[in-house]
Automatic annotation (TrEMBL), chain A:
Region (Disordered) location: 29-48
Biased segments, Basic and acidic residues type: 31-43
Family matches, as PROSITE patterns: PROKAR_LIPOPROTEIN
Keyword entries, A-Z: Signal
Signal peptide range in chain numbering: 1-26
Name assigned to this protein: Peptide/nickel transport system substrate-binding protein
Gene Ontology molecular function, alphabetical: peptide transmembrane transporter activity
UniProtKB/TrEMBL annotation, chain B:
Protein's UniProt name: Peptide/nickel transport system permease protein
Primary site of residence: membrane
Coiled-coil annotated residue ranges, if any: none
Keywords, comma-separated and alphabetical: Cell membrane, Membrane, Transmembrane, Transmembrane helix, Transport
The organism of origin for this protein: Actinacidiphila alni
Length: 572, 329
């Protein structure tokens, strides 16, 4: 999963936010007509919804998109075999059928998954959607011409590891069978009980082969969802969607599709997005953002302004920011040293360095604090709110460092980044109290990512984060702690280079379980077991707080995405 | 004049090729693997190898650079998977990330950047030269002090502060203008201007200060020169002295500077572009640098380089027109 991306623009945003905080409180625009605002009014069809974003909706090709649960804007255009349940909170972490009639029929050992399509499914041009088209898009996602998508199918499908995509290898993937136009069967090389959750990703959307234009497809994709693409300028910088008359609510109980038009503008400055949504002048009253948190100015303002506070959507996306250790590097081979650092960390100052407690919750578990992940509360090295330097010193003494020690912490130099210098400095300060001198090893953004994810250069002590490809323990614990997922030549995420037979076999055992609730309990227990080895120090789970316009109704925020679902929002 | 132009053209070509070579070398040496970045998170080795082949990154760097140079002269054909994408000369290559042609991408973004740069230049010249002249002619008065203060505040305020204040005042509080969203000049000239107005103003306010100071000092210097004293002695009117004689000499350095500034403006207005929602080259450049999309970076930097080179040549010509002592050779 990708890291949350913060650009260096945030520096400017923060500076301006602080500069304007005072003024904005005193003389902000008058907010009128608040009776209608919020989610109380009954939503109706019609109107135009504006989405104001910072990051462009790049790579709009379903084979290239790397989404969790099919994405927000993409899922308006691409329907998938399964999808996320469009509901508030924990209910929104469930997987439900989309194009398929069920979330999937597994074979006994969960290595074969069969899906049947619903009746009456059509593309925007009225032609029928077939399973061959779903198979075709999955094959496209293997093409090096269309790089960027999620890698799971390459690992999971039988004989797919070296497949080069349909352009170079038109024979296709033999692991996917389409015995008829409405049936599709997946043959996996190992049991995967979470296959239905993977099938929410856009590589499981249909692409008609006759309409495929390769790398140019993203500009005019063929829609299977409630909206079709009218224009896609500059690789997702400005996307205009209009209602697709061939989509039928009768086959789709998830997307509400209230607005007639959806206009997605990106590349906007984050401070400007917040200024516009808070002022709500003209069309901005019908606007939302899906990627910009409240800035310091708005955070200061919402506490005193009830009308504005009503227009803040709060959500949780499964994500953990943490300190990672590489025990192959001394002195981190010594568990007592790792434990000492875990005790010494001051989560309060760390969180303040990252925007404060309203945007971050302290974390002691590696798994996010949500039931669908199997969250099991534990705190093996209770550091309290501000750290326990005395206990840390004691452990250091036991480890053979009675006079403290000097270590270096690798971090990103991008200001405001989750792995940025502010957080690194907060860790440095906290560890000083325990007698640990931290030298900061700041790296430029791309170099940082390269260094920590390459086995040969991986440092012993660094900041990093991990997010959910779907809300379950599998994609959270697997890539980080499964010994067979250590990547020699490429991006390695198993930071601790842990290859523990008991952990590996437990992961295999859980992957066989198709009852997701039962699996979650086992993931939680595994998380606790690994947590006791002090291979990471979980720091915080981010909270999303985003403004929406005055006329926005039916705000639904699931724990799967943490942001308001565009398919549910109405402007009338 | 022809010799001057030919020589300038040759120099420009050399400068641009060297620039491209340096960029290629820098990105080759810089940390970060473009194939890995394009591949996305959690890529396995087989995938990266395939993508590296697809991007032509297996070739040695000088071969890659040679492909790039030959593309400029002869064009290139690329595969979209289902079809062939022809890139006519001058072909600057294909984005690693999206497969789009770099020339197409630049073609889409250049009008916005050019609109921003030229409009801002007109405004900063009007404001800058105007205040500069006024303060030179009203030396020692309250007017001069006020104008000096104004220019000081202008230089001291970074564009992201000026910009966000302008938006807050004109779009949010007074609501005289909508929040800008770029409209191409060819689509609707009036909307184009209204939507760019605040962006021009934000840039102009920062730049104008420099021009005001330059115009003022240069004007005062010229007014103190011997030939002006001679004109005065002959009884030429003060207005004619200022407009017909002094201004001409005083504006020479202003012209040189604005040509240079205009050139750099083609790549350096990133903050203004994001604040005012202008889909220009600056934003694209930063995005592309972050993901090591070398063809796009090289393409945009070449356009910026070209802008500076052309602006310099134009400045030299204008210099000669303004000051007849300068000979172009």
């Amino acid at each position: 999963m990708r890291h949350l991306s913060f650009t260096s623009r945030r520096i400017g945003v923060i500076a301006v936010g602080l500069a304007l905080a005072g003024g904005a409180v005193a003389c902000g625009p008058k907010s009128g007509d608040d009776a209608k605002s919020g989610s109380d009014g009954k939503p109706k069809q019609g109107g135009t919804l504006y989405v104001l974003n910072n990051q462009a909706q790049e790579d709009f090709d379903p084979a290239r998109l790397y989404t969790s649960g099919g994405g927000n804007v993409p899922s308006l255009v691409y329907r998938t075999l399964t999808t996320r349940n469009r509901a508030d909170g924990a209910a929104g972490s469930k997987v439900v059928p989309d194009l398929a009639t069920t979330t999937g029929e597994p074979s006994k050992d969960a290595t074969v998954w069969t899906y049947h399509l619903k009746d009456g499914l059509k593309y925007e041009d009225g032609s029928p959607i077939t399973t061959a088209d779903i198979k075709y898009d999955i094959e496209r996602s293997f093409a090096p011409e269309l790089s960027g998508g999620a890698p799971y199918l390459r690992d999971w499908l039988e004989g797919a590891a070296d497949y080069q995509g349909p352009y170079k290898d038109p024979k296709g993937l033999s692991a996917i069978e389409t015995p008829d136009a409405k049936t599709i069967v997946f043959h996996l090389n190992k049991p995967e009980g979470e296959f239905p959750l993977l099938a929410t990703q856009t590589s499981f959307a249909p692409v008609p082969k006759a309409k495929d234009t390769g790398t140019k497809y993203a500009a005019h994709p063929v829609s299977s969802g409630p909206y079709k693409v009218i224009s896609n300028e500059n690789n997702g910088e400005h996307i205009v969607l209009k209602r697709n008359p061939n989509w039928s609510a009768a086959t789709d109980d998830q997307r509400k599709a209230y607005p007639d038009t959806i206009d997605v503008q990106s590349g906007l400055d984050q401070a400007v997005i917040n200024q516009r949504l808070s002022a709500g002048v003209g069309k901005d009253a019908d606007a939302v953002t899906t990627d910009t948190n409240l800035g310091p100015a708005e955070l200061a303002k919402v506490t005193g302004d009830k009308n504005l506070a009503k227009r803040v959507g709060t959500g949780h996306f499964g994500y953990t920011d943490y300190i990672a250790f590489n025990p192959k590097v001394k002195p981190f081979d010594n568990i007592k040293v790792r434990e000492a650092i875990a005790y010494a960390v001051n989560r309060t100052t760390v969180i303040n360095a990252q925007g404060g407690s309203s945007l971050n919750e302290p974390a002691t578990t590696f798994l996010p604090a949500q039931a669908s992940f199997g969250y099991t509360p534990y705190d093996p090295f209770p550091a309290g709110k501000t750290g326990d330097p005395a206990k840390a010193k004691e452990l250091l003494k036991e480890a053979g460092y009675p006079n403290g020690l000097t270590v270096s912490l690798t971090h990103d130099v991008t200001k405001g980044d989750e792995q940025g210098p502010e957080v690194a400095t907060a860790v440095q300060e906290a560890l000083k109290a325990a007698g640990i001198t931290v030298k900061l090893d700041g790296q430029e953004h791309a170099a940082f990512s390269d260094k920590i994810h390459t086995l040969k250069t991986e440092p012993g002590f660094f900041l990093t984060g991990w997010g959910a490809d779907w809300p379950s323990g599998g994609p959270f614990l697997g890539p980080i702690f499964d010994g067979r997922q250590i990547v020699d030549n490429g991006a390695n995420f198993n930071n601790a280079q842990l290859d523990d037979a008991s952990v590996n076999s437990e992961i295999d055992a859980i992957n066989k379980i198709t009852d997701l609730k039962a699996a979650a309990v086992r993931w939680g227990a595994l998380d606790k077991k690994i947590g006791e080895q002090a291979l990471t120090v979980p720091l915080w789970h981010p909270v999303y707080k985003r403004l929406f316009g005055k006329n926005i109704k039916n705000v639904v925020i699931s724990d799967w995405t943490g942001v308001l679902d565009i398919s549910q929002v109405a402007v009338k | 004049m022809t010799r001057f132009l030919l020589r300038r053209l040759f120099q420009a070509a050399v400068v641009l090729v060297v620039l491209a070579a340096v960029l290629y070398a820098c990105f080759y040496l810089a940390p970060g693997d473009a194939a890995r970045l394009a591949c996305g998170p959690k890529c396995n080795t087989a995938q990266i190898t395939q993508i590296r082949g697809q991007m032509g990154l297996d070739d040695p760097v000088y071969v890659q650079f040679w492909h790039f140079l030959s593309g400029i002269v002869a064009g290139h054909d690329y595969s979209t998977g289902t079809d062939v994408l022809h890139c006519p000369a001058p072909c600057l290559g294909q984005s690693y990330r999206t497969g789009e042609l770099v020339t197409t991408m630049i073609g889409q973004k250049l009008p916005a950047t050019a609109s921003l740069a030229f409009g801002a230049m007109v405004l900063w010249l009007v404001i800058g030269v105007g205040t500069g002249l006024l303060s030179a002619l009203r030396r020692g008065t309250v007017t001069e002090r006020l104008l000096t203060g104004f220019t000081l505040v202008g230089t001291a305020t970074p564009v992201f502060i000026t910009g966000i204040l302008l938006l807050l005042v004109f779009c949010s509080w007074l609501q005289w203008l909508p929040y800008p969203s770029y409209v191409p000049l060819t689509e609707d000239p009036q909307q184009w201007a209204w939507n760019l107005l605040l962006a021009w103003l934000a840039l102009a306010l920062v730049e104008a200060a420099k021009y005001a100071r330059l115009t003022r000092s240069s004007m005062l210097e010229t007014l103190a020169e011997d030939h002006i004293r001679t004109f005065r002695a002959y009884g030429v009117g003060e207005r004619a002295i200022v407009v017909r004689h002094a201004l001409r000499g005083a504006l020479t350095p202003v012209i040189a500077l604005s040509a240079l500034d205009l050139g750099t403006m083609f790549g350096g207005a990133l903050l203004t572009e994001t604040l005012f929602n202008i889909p220009g080259l600056g934003q694209q450049l930063v995005q592309s640098v972050q993901i090591k999309d070398v063809p796009v970076v090289v393409g945009i930097v070449l356009v910026m380089g070209l802008a500076v080179v052309v602006a310099n040549a134009v400045a030299d010509v204008l210099y000669a027109v303004a000051d007849r002592r300068v000979v172009l050779a």
